[in-house]
Amino acid sequence: LESVVLNIESNMNNRPLTYVECDGGKEQVLMPNILIRGENCYMFDDVENEEDEITKMQRRLRKAKDDAWKRWKREYVHSLLESQRVNNKVVEAPQIGDVVLVVGEEKNRGEWKKGKCFDKFVEKTV
Predict the structure, then answer these.
(1) Is residue 113 part of a domain?
(2) Within-domain flag for 39
(3) For residue 70, which phi and psi values (nearest 5 degrees)?
(4) Which structural domain range is residue 28 located in?
(5) pTM given for the model
(6) Do the domain assignments include residue 32?
(7) CA 120 to CA 1: how far, in whole Å?
(8) Angle, vertex CA 90, rays to CA 112 and CA 99, nearest 5
(9) Are 82 and 63 in contact (CB under 8 A)?
(10) Domain count, the chain
């Protein structure tokens, strides 16, 4: 039963999070498994590796995670804004007292700071 549940979980996590136009490049569609494991996967293989191989795998995994995080910020956050535009919703500036998410380059990814608007700035255009 456990292997059935793991198989279902893996298949569900292989479904795309966002729509990305394919222009023949090497980028693949962003999926939960890419964020979780650094690659799209279906089966887990038991592999015994030498220490050098494990170090190389760790470097590749770190790079894959960093790349996935950058793509998530670029594609998913953009898709949220795009969906508001497609649905003809006017994106309003936060009002005083609103809680907002401050997008940044924090060391611990996924821990963007929450903020509360206490003042409003109006940009003057010339």
Answers:
(1) yes
(2) yes
(3) -65, -40
(4) 1-117
(5) 0.36
(6) yes
(7) 55
(8) 30
(9) no
(10) 1
